[in-house]
Fold this sequence. Notes:
two-stranded antiparallel sheet; 7 strands
Amino acid sequence: MMIDIFNHFMPKAYFDRLGDLIPGHVALTAFPRLPTLCDLDARLALLDQFDALQQVLSLANPPLELIAPPDQTPALARLANDSLAELCSRHPNRFPAFIASLPMNNIEASLAEIDRVVTGLGARGVQVFTNVAGRPLSEPEFRPIFQRMATHDLPVWVH
């Protein structure tokens, strides 16, 4: 068995929601040209070419905080994380786990989402980007994210 631990995917429900929030964004036109990035059947067909290959899924670009304001990103994170968890539950032999996304422009909601996805959905870590809308991850405001992940003893993937 081989497990590839950092694979980007955009579930259909989330992709459709992006069309409402950021119409015309490059992700909406480019991703369909790479079917394995947003088409589950294409991804599964790809995996079928490799005996016993499994993937840990993470959400593809763009970061949530670049899509919507702080009052909307928590719902967007829930949609993304619920969708990835559902794929893992439907295809555990292909997707044994997922990495959750956080609404990094809303720290309190990020902390709540960490607890929800780790304890309720089985996320095996969280993904953050190298900056939060141009602000470095080293700013004190973001320390609670890393502290919370340490309490769960799970990794933070930096994209």
